[in-house]
Every structure is written in C-alpha cells, then in structure tokens.
C-alpha cells in the first residue's frame, strides 16, 4: 500500500514545516516576552511619543495588560498573516503539485513564518501583513495609493524603523501594481509624492520629537499601573529604549559589530539555500514584457536592500533584519508576477535532487533568530 504523502516529497516537507512551527510556538511561550510586553504598556498618556500605537490601541480595551496578551495578540496576527499569504499564493500561482515546491520554499523558509513565530509579539510582522493586504486589494484607483500611505503611517507609529523595514517594499508594491500597471498621470504622481512626504514627515517627528518627556523613573512608575502584575519589574528592563537617542543606538550597534558580524556567513548560507527560489525570481523578471519594467524592478530590489543595509548600520538585531529582507523579496516576487509577461517563467522543479535537498534543509531549520543566527 502506497502512502499518498510519500508520492510527493513536497507534501511531506509541508507537513514537517507545520510540525516545526508548532514546536517553535511551544518553545516561544516558555520565553519571557520582554520587549513585546512593554510595547503593550506604552501609550500616548504623556503626549506624542514613538513606539506607542499598539499600546494605545490595547489601552482602548483594557486598563491592565496581562502577559498572556503578548502571545494572544501576536498569535492572532501570525494567523492572519498566514491566511493572507495563503490567499495571495492561491491568487498568484494557485495550489497545484507543480507550484507546491515554490510554496514550500517561501512559506516554509526559516526567514518567513517560522521566524515570525519565533519573534512573536515583535512589530515586524505588521509590516508584512499590511503589505500582503496591498498585494490582494484592487490597485486601479487612488484609494490604493491612499491605503498604502495610511498603512505606512500606521507602521511608522508602531515603530519608526518601519520606514526602512517595510515602507520601501510598500512603495515598490504601489509603483508596480498602480503606476506601472495603470500608468502615471499628473494627478496620481502628485498624490503619491504628497503621501510619501507625509510619511517621511511623521518619521522625523517620531525619531526626533517622540522621546518620552518625563524622567525614566516616572515613566516606569506609570507602566506599573498598566501591568496586571506590577511585581514583574523584570519585564520593564527595556524602558530605556524610549530615551535612547539615535547616536547611542548607532554606537551600540557598531560596538557589537565585531561579534555580530560573525553571523554573516550563516546568513549567506541561508540565502544560498534559497537558490532555486532566487532563480525562479530571476526568470520572472526576465520574462517581463517591458524592458522598463525589468529595470524598475531591479532598481526596487536594490533600493529595498540598501534600506536594510542602512538599518544594519543602525540597529543590531541582525537576524530579524535579514529575515525581513528576505520576506520583502518574497513580497516583491508576487508583485512582479502581476506585471505583463512575454512568456511564462519555469517553476521550481519538483523532482530535482538538489532542489529537494535544499527544500529539506530549509524545512528542518526552525527559525533564524533575533540578533545572532539561531
């Protein structure tokens, strides 16, 4: 008797990925939710400050924040992101035996959903989720551009580093899905420039005017009033980040650089293991009907990568940054597939031994991490 799942190894890899994700979740809930928890406590009680939108939203529903809310809110966001990506993949490529290797390489990548599970409660996933919404919604009107601007504003209010992390990929999605697909007019270009200007203005306000205006001791005392268990002072050890200037963040990053740079070969190896996916992406770009579109897509890939390079120089959470960079590449891949093509790009082969090996290795890697690899 033949077991159906063994007839197609990619189905087995998909099942293993699901089991790995469950394991990562079980491990995650055993770890202290330091930074994600304090983000649920900080709101706009003392005026406009950076990194306060999520806490302000939580404050609308409860005065006391339990620790379990980190996992409940983070888990719900993760499930929504999973559902959005599954819908996007179905819309872009469809679920068939031929597209299953592509789905495993993206959805099963340790850069993507598995790492979002490991960083449960952090703010990165919100950028991915909102970018997925933009990839799914109609893009023919200025409402699409307005929604992209609104999403970018929300992300900057959640954390201003989103200007480098997910705003560039949102700009790329808008350019590909609206301006390249429907054309540029004086009106929609002017609207886009104004919207982008508002996002940048908000970023500078958050970065330079969003510092907590009261002494740190008073700030911590207020946070304790928001905690369901004020005795858990260990959860407040990162309150200093609302006072830390940009120069100090950069100084800390460069101080850790000699040690953290040791992880770069590991990141390079992980990227190399995605070679079948990158080859397919290159074929997608090469198959585009317009040479202008090809050049603009390549420019966008360089631009998004440069934004992450700047982020690497400013904040030392390298494993998170490289993971989110890869996620941005996955998102752009889907956007490129929506452009007119001169021919169909050949999918990732389902029966190639090297491809299967790479897929198995990536499946077995549970996540990339937060600062250093694994």
Written description of the protein model:
This protein has 374 residues and is mainly alpha-helical. 68% of the residues lie in helices and 0% in strands. It contains 19 helices and no strands. The chain has helices spanning 4-7, 9-28, 34-41, 53-59, 68-92, 100-107, 113-118, 124-136, 142-158, 162-165, 167-182, 186-209, 216-226, 246-260, 264-273, 275-286, 291-314, 318-337, 353-364. Helix 9 (142-158) packs antiparallel against helix 11 and helix 11 (167-182) packs antiparallel against helix 17 (291-314). Mean pLDDT is 93; it is low at 1-6.
Secondary structure layout plus pairing:
Blueprint lengths: L3 H4 L1 H20 L5 H8 L11 H7 L8 H25 L7 H8 L5 H6 L5 H13 L5 H17 L3 H4 L1 H16 L3 H24 L6 H11 L19 H15 L3 H10 L1 H12 L4 H24 L3 H20 L15 H12 L10
Helix pairs in contact: 2-19, 3-4, 5-8, 8-9, 8-11, 8-18, 9-11, 9-12, 11-17, 11-18, 17-18
Structural class: mainly alpha
Determine the number of helices (DSSP H or I, runs of at least 4 residues).
19
Please tally the β strands and state the result. Answer: 0
What is the arithmetic mean of pLDDT?
Answer: 93
Largest sheet: none
The helix content is: 55-70%
| Cα-atom radius of gyration | 21 Å
Task: Give the helices and strands as they follow along the chain.
Answer: HHHHHHHHHHHHHHHHHHH
Distance between the termini: 40 Å
Q: State the shape.
A: globular
Q: Which ranges are low-confidence, i.e. pLDDT below 50, for 5 or more consecutive residues? A: 1-6
As a percent range, the share of strand residues is: under 5%
